[in-house]
Amino acid sequence: LNEIFLKIGRVLDVRWVASSYRTVKVVWKMYPALYKHFKEASEDKYRDQKTRSKYKGLCKRLESLQFLSDLALMCDVLSELSQLSLDLQSRDATLIQADKKIKRTIRVIDSLKTINGDYYAEAVKAIKQMMFKGIPLCNNIKLVCINKNQFITSIINNLNMRLLDNNEEDKIIIQDIQILDKKTWPADVNIRFGEQEVKRICNRFLLNQEKTLRGLRILIDEETNEIEELNEINNLIKTIPCSTAECERGFCLMNIICTDIRSRLTIHNISNLMMININGPPLSIWNPTDYVKSWILHHRTADDNRSRKINRKEKESLKQKLWNIL
Q: Cα dist. 26→53, 88, 92 in Å?
């Protein structure tokens, strides 16, 4: 049980939301085991009084109605936020997709005010029966439940702050990019529909305006979506990052390369190793012949007499006089 606790970590830490959801989900799933562990530890005579009191307090908190209600609410909310977090971490996620997914998640979380989620519904049923997974529940007046509606409103407000609609310039970019989505078009589309929006995108990101406009007219006039003239703007839309996941992957890779026992790497070498790791080909198709020839040409083999040699100067030990006495 202790090993599992070490693996699941802390709730609401600085890590991704998915980690917090896994943590509360494990607590929900292992509720009887946790209660039994705390109960036995609080009655263990081999532990000191302070430790037994601590476990007794944990046991009382675990069996309280307030804790179960808060745990269920956290599970419902974090399950939605966890899925959103994983979606935004995808390399294929575009700015439009991210905006839609955030708005969809906001609507889902807002619905939890009126329609209970799976975890909260199970908790309400358990509270009525005063029994959850075979563990008797009790009302702890010292604990105060999280205000459900207020908590959900706070979550929604924080999500709304991350929408591009809050910034007028970003809002215009979203609206301009959506012009290329046929689902947003009116029933009767003029051949010059969306020209102003496309011009703004081209001017902002220095794209070929004439070529892109020609591609837009082909998109309006024909059924196909595979238009060569729009490749440039389509690649632009896919390139705009919608989260910091890629930066986090870079930092994670840097920590893997530069460790405590490999800390003398220069910034240049770390950058090169990261470049190879991220963009390099797999070993199955990599041909090392040219690199081996270059290595040998510069006399870097271990048995080459012309290899660079390290001049190691013998330093006189500061304890030499002491050693002479001994």
A: 24, 24, 30
Closest CA to 1 of 45, 49, 46, 36: 36
Token representation of residue 224: 């196909």
Question: What digits encode the pLDDT tens for the residues 177-200?
Answer: 888 888 888 888 888 998 999 999
User: Is pLDDT larger for residue 316 or for residue 65?
Assistant: 65
Q: N- to C-terminal Cα distance for the chain?
A: 55
Residue 200: CA count within 13 A, CB half-sphere? 14
Q: In the structure, what pLDDT confidence band is assigned to residue 115 with cuts at 50, 70 and 90?
A: very high
Tell whether the model's pLDDT for residue 27 goes beyond 80.
Answer: yes
The position carrying tokens 């989900």 is 25
Q: Where are the beta strands (DSSP E) in the chain?
A: 131-132, 135-136
Both structure tokens of 234: 């389509």
Average pLDDT score over residue span 299-307: 61
pTM of the predicted structure, to 2 decimals: 0.73
Per the structure block, which two tokens stand in for 179? 């012009």
Q: Which residues pair with 135 in a beta bridge?
A: 132
User: Directed axis angle between helix 65-88 and helix 148-161, to 10°?
Assistant: 20
188 sits in the region (left: phi over 0; alpha: psi -120 to 50; else beta) called beta
Q: Would you call 230 exposed, middle or buried from its count of C-beta atoms within 10 A (0-12, 13-18, 19+)?
A: buried
Q: Which of 95-104, 138-147, 301-310 has the lowest mean pLDDT?
A: 301-310
DSSP-derived letter for residue 299 is T
Q: Which of 91, 81, 16, 78 is nearest to 242 (CA)?
A: 91
